[in-house]
Design brief:
Layout: H1 3-13, E1 26-29, E2 38-42, H2 47-56, E3 60-63, H3 80-91, E4 94-97, H4 100-103, H5 109-116, E5 120-123, E6 126-128, E7 131-136, E8 138-147, H6 148-159, E9 165-166, E10 177-187, H7 192-198, E11 202-206, H8 210-216, E12 222-224, H9 227-230, H10 234-249, E13 254-258
Parallel strand pairs: 2-3, 2-13, 3-4, 10-11, 11-12
Antiparallel strand pairs: 1-4, 5-8, 6-7, 8-10, 9-12
Length: 269
């Protein structure tokens, strides 16, 4: 099976039409439409991951984060992105990006985090008009109300986060109970109002700004474990869906998960 034929099947399983407008999803690099035997599933690309892709002989990389965003003005190898593009072309490896198409999938980014926190009855925060089971973000409920510190503890553990930032007034720390949550993995504060409208008790996302934390004290609390941390489940989630598809295709294609850390943010604790 050629790469392009496989990608047609992948688009049926994880449609690019689910993606946010202007998100650079889909095929970003392909110098040759090769026969496909190995697929590498990654969070995003680094030089080390490209070396691992070479070692396993993957003809196709399926990544969560785009490599080329929003565009390239040149390909001279002067920075990380340009050098990786050159390396991929030299290795004849294709790069296909899912990003918000996977975010919006019924088993996508926020759904996986909700399940990782022990939520039940998980559904999209903002369903897609054409598919009510898909959509951006997730709403999940707990079988029993928990306090915000227990939610933060679960979030820190599930995401393997160094720290979880919480917005709440200290006097409320022992009184605020959480039964339902909204989640938008990654940078999702633009969906905060949707979480409020949904009537949830707290909102989990990343990259919340200082003044947003102030404003949240008049609404519902925000919990922020970090961008990459909030997307901790995406490699395994994407690989599971692709693995199921590969089994159905019965083409002898191997799916390899590469969970190499790429987070550029380090914490001193």
């Amino acid at each position: 099976m050629k790469i392009t034929h496989f990608l047609e099947k992948l688009d049926e399983a994880i449609p690019l039409s689910f993606a946010m407008p202007d998100d650079p999803v889909g095929l970003q690099v392909m110098s040759e439409d090769r026969e496909l035997s190995v697929i590498a599933v990654v969070y995003e690309l680094s030089g080390e991951i490209v070396r691992q892709v070479k070692q396993i002989g993957a003809e196709l990389i399926v990544a969560f984060h785009p490599l080329i965003y929003p565009h390239l003005s040149s390909i001279t190898g002067k920075n990380r992105v340009e050098q990786i593009v050159i390396d991929l072309i030299q290795e004849r490896s294709g790069l296909y990006v899912l990003h918000t198409a996977f975010d919006a999938h019924p088993k996508g980014t926020s759904h996986l985090l909700a399940k990782g926190l022990g939520c039940t009855e998980v559904r999209p925060l903002v369903p897609l008009p054409e598919n009510q089971e898909a959509g951006m973000g997730a709403i999940g409920s707990f079988n029993q109300a928990i306090d915000i510190h227990e939610l933060a503890r679960r979030l820190k553990e599930a995401c393997k986060a160094a720290v979880v930032r919480i917005s709440h007034k200290p006097a409320e720390s022992d009184n605020r109970k959480i039964l339902s949550i909204g989640i938008l993995g990654g940078s999702g504060m633009s969906f905060y109002d949707a979480a409020i409208d949904a009537g949830v008790d707290a909102f989990i996302t990343a990259e919340a700004r200082y003044h947003t934390f102030h404003a949240a004290n008049d609404k519902i609390p925000i919990l922020d474990p970090g961008h990459a941390e909030s997307e901790a489940f995406v490699v395994n989630g994407m690989a599971d869906l692709i693995g199921e598809m590969v089994l159905d295709l019965n083409q002898g294609i191997r799916v390899v998960r590469i969970n190499e850390p790429t987070n550029p943010i380090q914490y001193i604790v």
